[in-house]
């Protein structure tokens, strides 16, 4: 008797034959595609010849710029500058999948808010590749403060001084005003350091850290042991704070919004290395800090601190961390300070200011919620703008617990 299943068996065999042919074709296509993209033979799209701008082509011939394959841009990217897309697009790693990245691509970091300001971004990313960058420090800082942080990298050389000279040697450089030639002054109202020194007396209106550049004025006595402070004073000295720890155990630290880095200089005199974050708000703060022989870091208070967990011996901040910062952002920031401090590390909150009952109702509970142990906590009136404003100062030393810190 004939089996009723024979036709079904024939159709099944034809299906498997079709499946086999299809998978072989797909395999052939994929292998050809990946081989061509990963081989040492570069297609014309992978090589860009860019002339060496402003240089003698006979002595420095144009060099091929090898680029890796980038992710295809989306429709939303059409309004963004080409150089911004070139930098931020995911780039295929030349040697394929990397276990450290857990990916075969690398995505350069850039602030998420950059694309929210397309006009400013377009101006910032418009330049001749391999040439000179525009003199646009003010534009760059505005973008950064709007949240475009970190700023995208650029393939151009920054504006520099015309006749720069060697810096003063250490330790002379720590307390000597740098030469004017160490700064590109385009972005600032003042065009030399003497103008910055004089503005505390001559200039009306507000400017950030208005008297900071006068190293023979109030800067000379800040945090100094020679300055006698009454009991309960808001002004702690560096030696007083260092005495809370065994000698030599405070070695590295961070000063958030540190002006012209006098705190870092004082600590350097005591063999403690401190990095100072600062913006250039109508003054060349970062240039000035570097000229003094200490390390500037050009980041805003919104940026995650670029240090690993449990590494800093001390974090200091004077005036900057105060009630002008949105409360949620401040909460994140104080937790970030806690994160980078090592167990046993000290957070020196120096002259935090607020108004009326804010310390009791808002900022006291906020600070306590982070988990610090109070070492010293001094509250006083802030009277420099008038008693009627009811402004208050807090100076505190807060310790990250040595154990059970999470």
UniProtKB/TrEMBL annotation:
What keyword terms does UniProt attach to this protein? Glycoprotein, Membrane, Methyltransferase, Signal-anchor, Transferase, Transmembrane, Transmembrane helix
Q: What is its main location?
A: membrane
Which regions span the lipid bilayer?
A: 12-35
Q: According to the UniProt record, where is the region Disordered?
A: 52-73
Q: What is the membrane topology listed in the Swiss-Prot or TrEMBL record? A: Single-pass membrane protein; Single-pass type II membrane protein
Which biological processes are named by the entry's GO terms? Answer: methylation
Q: Output the InterPro entries linked to this UniProt entry.
A: Prob_Methyltransferase (IPR053223), Put_SAM_MeTrfase (IPR004159), SAM-dependent_MTases_sf (IPR029063)
Localization per Swiss-Prot or TrEMBL: Endomembrane system; Membrane
- Keyword Ion transport assigned: no
Compositionally skewed regions (Polar residues) per UniProt: 54-73
Q: Name one GO molecular function term.
A: methyltransferase activity
Name any one Pfam family assigned in the record. Methyltransf_29
Q: Which GO terms describe its cellular component?
A: endomembrane system; membrane
Q: Which family does it belong to?
A: Belongs to the methyltransferase superfamily.
Name under which the protein is recorded? Methyltransferase type 11 domain-containing protein
Lineage of origin: Eukaryota, Viridiplantae, Streptophyta, Embryophyta, Tracheophyta
